[in-house]
Design brief:
Layout (H helix, E strand, L loop, with lengths): L6 H6 L6 E3 L3 H11 L5 E3 L4 H5 L14 E5 L5 E6 L9 H6 L5
Parallel strand pairs: 1-2
Antiparallel strand pairs: 3-4
Protein backbone atom coordinates (compact mmCIF):
# COMPACT_ATOMS: atom_id res chain seq x y z
CA UNK A 1 0.00 0.00 0.00
CA UNK A 2 1.59 3.26 -1.04
CA UNK A 3 0.40 5.75 1.53
CA UNK A 4 2.56 8.61 0.30
CA UNK A 5 1.35 8.37 -3.30
CA UNK A 6 -2.23 8.40 -2.05
CA UNK A 7 -1.84 10.75 0.89
CA UNK A 8 -3.89 13.49 -0.74
CA UNK A 9 -6.83 11.10 -1.16
CA UNK A 10 -6.86 10.61 2.60
CA UNK A 11 -6.63 14.34 3.23
CA UNK A 12 -9.55 14.94 0.84
CA UNK A 13 -11.60 12.70 3.14
CA UNK A 14 -10.46 14.72 6.17
CA UNK A 15 -8.36 11.80 7.40
CA UNK A 16 -4.82 11.87 8.72
CA UNK A 17 -2.30 9.11 8.16
CA UNK A 18 0.09 8.21 10.97
CA UNK A 19 2.69 5.50 10.73
CA UNK A 20 4.13 3.79 13.78
CA UNK A 21 7.67 2.43 13.73
CA UNK A 22 8.91 0.06 16.43
CA UNK A 23 12.17 2.00 16.39
CA UNK A 24 13.80 4.86 18.23
CA UNK A 25 13.12 8.47 17.28
CA UNK A 26 16.27 8.84 15.18
CA UNK A 27 15.45 5.77 13.06
CA UNK A 28 11.80 6.80 12.66
CA UNK A 29 12.94 10.23 11.51
CA UNK A 30 15.40 8.64 9.08
CA UNK A 31 12.63 6.42 7.71
CA UNK A 32 10.49 9.50 7.14
CA UNK A 33 13.34 11.19 5.29
CA UNK A 34 14.10 8.11 3.17
CA UNK A 35 10.47 7.58 2.18
CA UNK A 36 9.66 11.25 1.74
CA UNK A 37 6.52 10.70 3.78
CA UNK A 38 4.43 13.84 4.23
CA UNK A 39 2.63 12.16 7.12
CA UNK A 40 4.15 11.61 10.56
CA UNK A 41 6.10 8.46 11.33
CA UNK A 42 5.98 8.04 15.08
CA UNK A 43 8.58 6.19 17.13
CA UNK A 44 7.53 3.35 19.44
CA UNK A 45 10.95 2.15 20.64
CA UNK A 46 9.65 0.08 23.55
CA UNK A 47 6.72 -1.20 21.42
CA UNK A 48 4.21 -0.01 24.04
CA UNK A 49 1.70 1.25 21.48
CA UNK A 50 2.09 -1.75 19.19
CA UNK A 51 1.58 -4.02 22.20
CA UNK A 52 -1.55 -2.14 23.31
CA UNK A 53 -3.01 -2.54 19.83
CA UNK A 54 -2.18 -6.24 19.89
CA UNK A 55 0.12 -6.22 16.88
CA UNK A 56 3.62 -6.46 18.37
CA UNK A 57 5.43 -9.74 17.61
CA UNK A 58 2.19 -11.26 16.36
CA UNK A 59 4.13 -12.97 13.57
CA UNK A 60 6.99 -14.03 15.85
CA UNK A 61 9.46 -11.65 14.20
CA UNK A 62 9.97 -9.09 16.97
CA UNK A 63 8.24 -6.25 15.11
CA UNK A 64 4.69 -5.07 14.68
CA UNK A 65 2.52 -6.89 12.15
CA UNK A 66 1.47 -4.69 9.23
CA UNK A 67 -1.73 -3.12 10.47
CA UNK A 68 -4.22 -0.38 9.75
CA UNK A 69 -6.51 1.14 12.34
CA UNK A 70 -9.11 3.73 11.50
CA UNK A 71 -9.90 5.80 14.55
CA UNK A 72 -12.89 8.13 14.48
CA UNK A 73 -12.83 11.69 15.90
CA UNK A 74 -14.10 10.34 19.23
CA UNK A 75 -11.13 7.96 19.55
CA UNK A 76 -13.00 4.75 18.70
CA UNK A 77 -11.52 2.16 16.36
CA UNK A 78 -14.11 1.84 13.60
CA UNK A 79 -12.17 -0.54 11.36
CA UNK A 80 -8.92 -2.46 11.53
CA UNK A 81 -6.84 -4.77 9.42
CA UNK A 82 -4.01 -6.86 10.82
CA UNK A 83 -1.82 -8.62 8.28
CA UNK A 84 -1.15 -12.34 8.49
CA UNK A 85 2.37 -11.93 7.08
CA UNK A 86 4.80 -9.13 6.26
CA UNK A 87 3.24 -8.56 2.84
CA UNK A 88 -0.44 -8.80 3.84
CA UNK A 89 -1.77 -5.27 3.67
CA UNK A 90 -5.10 -3.85 2.56
CA UNK A 91 -5.29 -1.77 -0.59
CA UNK A 92 -5.56 2.00 -0.35
CA UNK A 93 -9.04 1.76 -1.88
CA UNK A 94 -10.10 -0.70 0.82
CA UNK A 95 -8.86 1.58 3.59
CA UNK A 96 -10.49 4.66 2.08
CA UNK A 97 -13.78 2.77 1.68
CA UNK A 98 -13.83 2.27 5.48
CA UNK A 99 -13.22 5.90 6.40
CA UNK A 100 -16.14 7.48 8.25
CA UNK A 101 -18.18 9.96 6.26
CA UNK A 102 -17.85 13.61 7.26
Amino acid sequence: MDLQANYERFRERHAEVLALAVQDVARAKRMQELTGAAFPILADPDHAVATQYGVFDRLGDGVAAPSVFIVDPNGYIVWSYIGQNAFDRPTVDEVIAHLPEK
